[in-house]
Amino acid sequence: MRGLTTPLLTILLPLGLSGISLPLIEALTTVPREPSAPPTRIVALTLGTAELIADLVPTNRIQAVSYLATKEGVSNVASLLAGVPSIRGVNTEELLKRHPDLILASRYTEPAAISQLRRCGLPVLRFTDHESFRQIERNVRQLGRTIEAQEQAKRIVDWMRDTLRAVREAVAGKDQSAERVLFFNGHFTAGQETLTDAQIDLAGGINLASLAGIEGYAPISDELVVALDPTVIVLTVSLRSKGDFADPRGAILAKSAWRNVTAIREGRVHLLPNEHLSTRSPYAVLAVVDLAKVLHPEVAESIDVAPHPSRPSSSTRGSR
Amino acid sequence: MSRAWRLGMLGALVAGLAFLSCAVGRATISVESISAIVIHALTRWNVGSWEPWQATIVWEIRLPRTVIAILVGGGLGLAGAVMQGLFRNPLADPGLLGVSSGGAFGAVLAVYTGLAAYFALAVPILALCFAIATGLTVYVVATMRGHPSTATLLLAGIAMTAIASAGTAALLSFSLSRWDVAREMIAWLLGGLNGRSWTDVVLVGPLVVGGYLYLHCFANDLDALAGGEEVASSLGIDVPIVRRNLLMVASAVTAATVAVSGVLAFVGLIVPHIIRLLFGPAHRWLLPGSFLGGAALLLIADLIARTVTSGELRLGILTSLLGGPFFFLLLLRRATD
């Protein structure tokens, strides 16, 4: 009792017991379940997954969506999902009560919450990558297969490709290096391996953050912005900052440290629709259209956006 | 009322709170159904009816969460009582040797490296390993020149806490560009029991229960140590050995609690004080009282955390909100004394 053996055993024995029992408990308590075919009570936990599913199935197959998906100015499918119940965050009890047969989650959903949902026998489809158009297409096809809506998924992918082709043709031959673009959102910018980087590139511009070696979404200092001297600055309004910063464009133009930056001097600071630039759904192609229009205004009229397969009559908001 | 009765009543309070914890949640399930589900799970007797999804909620979500609240709160209360007895300082805390900060660093590292995304247990396991390693490092450093004084141990603990906290802050700052990662880190650092399962019970349970049984055997030694090291030595207690063993086991218990719940401030600090008022200073009563008191406090805090807002308040915020004013009160009382 007084030596070192007993306290060590007091610690190591329980640890050993836990170690032996963990795999057993994991196996006993995890109930893996495949989604029933085809799922008719689908829950989308995030905005991106709600936008994916809303275009693939009628809303009567959607059980609930993230509250963000029903907000105008944030969601591309707000009007489509107007009557669908909304949920905030991941509450397993609330979800179990709804008896969903498929739950859609993304990289942003807490892993612990997903583990719990799976332990409770709820089928979860989690999309972990959506920082390229190729990956978004893959996500659409995967979801199409899971819910047996392959044809509609193919139509959505074709629409994405047609839209990007229209932009590519319109900006072909333009001097890409002349449009030095900086994406700026509350001291953060988008560098290499981000969807924003791909969007700027496809729209016929150069992403300065990427050129500066910034990876992912990272803070950028005032000093670096001045040194990079962008010719165009694009902004978007994040949901949280709405109201607090009603005029982010005005705030940027009033920054005294940036007064000699070309984009500020020439007034080329553009506020783009949040729902296009922030989404990780097929609607992200619309941000490429928005960007092409502000980078190359002379070709704006010639960009012919194909009608969306789910909503042929819908129109898209442009930049301000 | 005798102390045994008081302890029994505290136990009954914990049992009542545990039942309430199983009964309250976002989904409405009748008390009859909850009782029937629990009885059926334990004995296979059918004493009522329920929907399968209700059984899942009770058995997979609420019950493990309740058991973890009891183990974590109890473990922290127990470790706090032992630390305060060992250091003869009412402001001593279970994380005194940097165990909590080390655990926090381990958990944040698991999230930062992406291990947590592939293996859900990576967070508690790494937290546990780092918490134990931190406590061990502090003890080894403090004892390098022989039997350490209380002040040396405290200072070594403070130094290690600072290093581990700096490591945590560094990882958090590296993650600013990946907000989903940073959000997960912050959520863990703020403490909470959301999403916990039977796996976590298995991880924390044996160490807390084993630790309690071991520490309780030293109740009389802790009483003697309260009179000072000389008094304890004169009573035949090998002070350095007893102190080393108790520190080791109390820190391991703290490490286990930090691993599954994140950093929950003040539970281990305030509970032993309240229990001392009810049971007196004798550790024979103080240790089980602190265990039950900690369990009750955490069950109450968790009930508030999951019902006060439409989302869920992080548990660490609540324990700090409860403990902060108490801490002030304690300091004021000491100043008056």
Automatic annotation (TrEMBL), chain A:
Signal peptide: none annotated. It comes from the Bacteria. PROSITE patterns: FE_B12_PBP (PS50983). Residues 41-299 form the Fe/B12 periplasmic-binding domain. Gene3D superfamilies: Nitrogenase molybdenum iron protein domain. This is Hemin-binding periplasmic protein HmuT. The gene is hmuT.
Automatic annotation (TrEMBL), chain B:
Gene3D superfamilies: ABC transporter involved in vitamin B12 uptake, BtuC (1.10.3470.10). The chain crosses the membrane at residues 67-87, 94-112, 118-141, 153-177, 197-215, 246-279, 285-305, 312-332. It is found in: Cell membrane. It holds the Pfam family FecCD. Its main location: membrane. It is a multi-pass membrane protein. Keywords: Cell membrane, Membrane, Transmembrane, Transmembrane helix, Transport. GO terms for molecular function: transmembrane transporter activity. It comes from the Bacteria. The keyword Transmembrane helix applies. GO terms for cellular component: plasma membrane. One of its GO terms (biological process) is siderophore-iron import into cell. CDD domains: TM_ABC_iron-siderophores_like. The keyword GTP-binding does not apply. Belongs to the binding-protein-dependent transport system permease family. FecCD subfamily. This is Hemin transport system permease protein HmuU. It comes from Kolteria novifilia. The gene is hmuU_3.
